[in-house]
Amino acid sequence: MTEITLMTPERFAALDTEMQAMHETWRSRWCGGGMCACMGCANRSGGLLGKGFTEAEWKEYCAAKGIVAPPVPTSEEVHRVLRQIFGNPVE
After folding, report:
1. What are the residue boundaries of the structural domains of the chain, listed by start?
2. What sign has the CA pseudo-torsion 26, 57, 30, 36?
3. pTM exceeds 0.85, yes or no
4. Are 3 and 58 in contact (CB under 8 A)?
C-alpha cells in the first residue's frame, strides 16, 4: 500500500531545492536496491534519503511536478542497440 503524505509547503520547497540541484535523469528514479552501484537515482548515496526525505514524499513531489520515469528498455531493444554499436557476434 502506498503511503500518502501531504507535505507542508515548506517541506515541498525544501524537496524542490534538492530535486533541482540533482541531475535531471536522477529525479525520476527511486532505487530499491541495497548498496548503490550506479549513482543514478534520487536516493543515491548522499541523496534524498540521506537528507531525511522519504520515498512517499518523493512520489508526492513527482506526481505534483509531472515527473515520470522513462520506460525501461526490453532485452531485445538492448541487444539491438549493442549489435548496432559492436556488430553481430562471431559465430
Report:
1. 9-86
2. positive
3. no
4. no
